[in-house]
Amino acid sequence: VEAVHLIADGKAPRIPQPKEGATYEGIQKKENAEISWDQPAAALHNWIRGHDKVPGAWATIDSQVVTFYGSSLLDAAVPAGQELAIKGASRPGLITKNGLVVFGNDGKMVLVRNLQFEDGKMIPASKYFSADETTALELTEEEKKMAEDIR
């Protein structure tokens, strides 16, 4: 009751909470989620997974911001794949059948399964080089007739 009266009278002591030892982290912003490549693979994995889904850890590839999702540590021989230059990385990534393999400064690997482009389009990382390919839709005669009937 005494505390309530002190507050009502405007006489309650005001002690600002110290920031030291605080555990709350503010809302992450996209501009703060850029991947720093000079880290061991475990730190890269933790950074990517820690920012998965919001705001999404990102890097610059071919002059565009690409967001990485779904990482896991890869403990195997270096897989075969097509090299992909990533800005800031000391070693190019590899587009493999399972996804994008990136390397930590310790030489260990992280596998990233999905990539999202600035326009919002998300693709499996393994399809990076085939993302621009489009296939023309060819209709059979029966399908053409059905399309005409629908029109």
From TrEMBL:
Signal sequence segment: none
Superkingdom, taxonomy of origin: Eukaryota
Domain Formyl transferase C-terminal: 29-130
Record-linked InterPro entries: Formyl_trans_C (IPR005793), Formyl_trans_C_sf (IPR037022), Formyl_transferase-like_C_sf (IPR011034)
Record Pfam families: Formyl_trans_C (PF02911)
Family annotation (SUPFAM superfamilies): FMT C-terminal domain-like (SSF50486)
Single GO MF descriptor: catalytic activity
Protein name: AL1L2 dehydrogenase
Gene that this polypeptide is encoded by: Aldh1l2
